[in-house]
Amino acid sequence: MTKATNPRQDLICRLKDETEAKRLLVLHRYEMQASWLSWGLDILMQRDLSWTTILHQYSDRLLKFVLNAQQNTLPSPDNLRRWNLKKDAICGLCKDREVTLSHVLAGCHWVRNVEHKLPREDRFTWRHNNLLFHLAKVIGDHVKVANASRPRQPVDSLIRFVRPGQPVRKSYRKAKPPSLLDVASDWSFDFDLSEFRRPGSAYVFPHVVCQTSLRIDGYLLSRTARTCIGLELTCPMEENIAKWHGSKLRKYEEEISFQATQNGWKFYAIVIEVGARGWIPPSVHSGLSRLGIPRHLVKSLCKQLTLLAIKSSYIIWLNRFNQDFQPWRLTVH
Questions:
Q1: Residue 200 belongs to a domain
Q2: Domain residues for 314?
Q3: What is the SS3 assignment for 216?
Q4: Mean pLDDT computed over 1-10
Q5: 50/69 Cα distance (integer angstroms)
Q6: Torsion, CA 175, CA 180, CA 182, CA 188, rounded to 10
Q7: Do the domain assignments include residue 100?
Q8: Which residue of 60, 86, 249, 287 has the lowest C-beta tally within 10 Å?
């Protein structure tokens, strides 16, 4: 809160802070509805649930799902048992008891151990690939624009000459933030999606950078600058986002970055997380900005990824008793 300019305002600010602290203390005591506090209260309050979004992008049923999923009040098996509505409630796929919403949306072991081995996308991979496909289209279009532009010379290396007798004028023009793509104009890209594959073709990480069996979701490559940018997308439950972010970064730092440096390449890892209920952490904005994507496009992209995640999770919820889930590519319009 901003610093008050007089004692009266300072007292009002202190009282508001104490009241807010007491309110949050009570909220943390709730067993079911307190998980959203771990996502970040300030960011959660800024979620895009404007009237325009609600009227044109959220159906009544989808909005009901979003609100109940956020507060953990959906009729999941653990809630049905807690509410004394169905004592024998079990997971519709793996038949386990006492399963939670997190289990249904992102953790069912039947999906990971049985459906994942079928010759089609399992439902969790399907949600992930819906987001990855949209992200790949946006990044691919941006790479084409970047390749059409001349590589920018670093600002620090430019010499500004001043004519004799002329005063030195300070430039107040805000410089464009540096981008990882500024160093070259021969960027190529690939993503671990069937839409990017020809029949019989397999996705592999470029061995010229590093010999690894890791299947990072996508990469951008410049051979002239000997630079590779790895892109990894995860779609966990919101309370697990911080854990997965650190785990992914450490994995790629240990196995790819070190070997790439030994081979004379620069490797940068950008890890993007989109929660199963649509929440996107601030690290996604900064990661996409490193690619030079304009701020307004990053904001628009994040809203689209949020909507895709929510719609995909809603479909997963509707199919929680269906072992014959048939995937298709879900898009935003």
A1: yes
A2: 125-151+178-318
A3: coil
A4: 63
A5: 18
A6: -150
A7: no
A8: 60
Distance CA 6, CA 173 (A): 36
Closest by CA position to 209, among listed 229, 191, 192 = 229
Rounded to whole angstroms, the Cα distance separating 272 from 5 reads: 41
For the CA atoms of 19, 21, 273, 269, what is the dihedral angle to 10 degrees? 120
Task: Report how far residue 14's alpha carbon sits from residue 182's, in angstroms, rounded to the nearest whole number.
Answer: 47
Question: Rounded CA gap, 268 and 271, in Å?
Answer: 10
Domain presence at residue 192: yes
Regarding beta strands 227-234 and 188-191, do their DSSP bridges make them parallel or antiparallel, or are they unpaired? unpaired
Q: Name the DSSP class of 219.
A: E
CB 193 within 8 A of CB 129: yes
Top-confidence residue, 235 or 60: 235
Continuous segment of H or E residues that includes residue 271 = strand 266-273
Q: Is the pTM higher than 0.90? A: no
d(CA 133, CA 193): 7
Least confident of 50-59, 209-218, 279-288, 310-319: 50-59
- The Cβ of residue 331 has, within 10 Å, a number of other Cβ atoms equal to 12
Pure H helices in the chain = 7-27, 41-45, 51-57, 60-71, 77-82, 101-102, 109-113, 123-148, 241-252, 258-262, 282-289, 295-318
Could you give the number of structural domains in the chain? 1
Per residue in 168-179, pLDDT (tens digit) is: 666 544 556 689
Q: Which residue has the tokens 């540096």?
A: 178
Band of pLDDT at residue 43, cut at 50, 70 and 90: very low
Please indicate, yes or no, if residue 255 is contained in any of the structural domains: yes
Angle of helix 123-148 versus helix 295-318 axis, rounded to 10: 160
Rg (Cα) of the chain, in Å, rounded?
A: 24
For 158, phi and psi rounded to 5 degrees?
A: -80, 140
DSSP, res 106: I
